[in-house]
Amino acid sequence: MPQPSNVDRRKVLKGSLAVAAAPAFISVAHAQEKITWKVQSHWPKASGSFDDSLGVLAKELDERTGGRFKLELYGAGEIAKDREIYNIVRRGVVSMGTISPAYILGEAQAMGLYYGVPGTLRESWEMMHLTKNLGIEKMVNDQLRPKGVIMMGDKSYPTELVLKKKITSAADLGSLKVRSTGTMLEYLAAAGASPQQIAGPELYQGLATGVVDGAHWGAAIGALSMKLWEVAPYHMKPALGFANDAYIINIAALDKLPADLRLQFVSLVEERYFRRSVEYLHQEAISLNTGKEKMNVEVVRFPDDVLKRFADASNTILKKEIAKGDIAAKGGQAVTKLMSDLGYT
User: Which of 113, 143, 157, 116 shows the shortest CA–CA distance to 16?
Assistant: First the structure.
């Protein structure tokens, strides 16, 4: 894919990030400067996204900058995990991390909308449109920037549950402990399950030992790469919702980059969000087919009474998100109008 022009990059930088455009003249010293950023991932190295999202980003950044800008990657827990990643990036311990918005819902009014309200949208492209074109990411960054960080989407992806036991009613779900996070906790609780919080690296063990009876780590790709289907072979449809994974970036580190590297970095991350989200859906189909054909995975539709509880919970969660303040209310209006335009309400 051809690299965007300097004019295109300046347009990106003048948008949601509000980073200064590059000067027309870049000194020879700057042009030769080499940068390495430490990047703490919330994905374990076993997770498909560690290589396919973060690994590819690092490789393409290295190639596009002629080796002048490198990312040094750390798997979940090597320096920090979960919410701790926000704090080490904010303090500058590392320049960048990956994170789920679900881990830091209290940091911005629209963060819950950035993570995704379960049961509202039905396709990844809808979440991508809401995030970038309808302003949710900008709303989040307007509140994060004074704290020293910004977030940029890695991908939009479906969230789907895997279970150890087959269910036929809401009563069956009510007997299960399910690993979840963010607003999905409330969503699953409303359907009668008992949601628990477990870190990604501990998911397989938690399922294998019976600490939990089900979990979500993305959808089919996560279940395959994290080997969850080995102990939880029932893959539930439809998706609980669509969410964003994101990069979190220290603003001071970003501002210190030579102007041309800053342009290359921001342009690449913006571009990768759309490329990765679409690629992810292709990989989802391949992964689910692999599970069905080679691992005896059974795709099971949620019973109608569970879906009814989910629908009620979705309305309740969206109302709570909108009530968080003026910014959240504006974001909520974008969500509800999009749902109306799509014929969902």
Answer: 143
Phi–psi pair at 198, nearest 5 degrees: -135, 135
- Is the pLDDT at 84 greater than 70? The verdict is yes
Whether 313 contacts 187, CB under 8 Å? yes
pTM of the model: 0.84
Average pLDDT score over the chain: 90
pLDDT digits (tens, 9 = 90+) for 249-297: 999 999 999 999 999 999 999 999 999 999 999 999 999 999 999 999 9
Residues written for the chain: 345
CA 102 from centroid of its chain's CA atoms: 9
How many Cβ atoms from other residues are within 10 Å of residue 175's Cβ?
12
Radius of gyration of the chain (CA): 20
CA distance 336 to 72: 40
Report the run of H or E that residue 337 belongs to, with start and end. Answer: helix 326-341
> What is the pLDDT at residue 7?
43
Sequence letter at residue 154:
D
Instruction: Let me know: does 299 contact 235? Beta carbons within 8 Å.
Output: yes
Those residues whose C-beta lies under 8 Å from the C-beta of residue 209, and which sit 6 or more positions away, are none
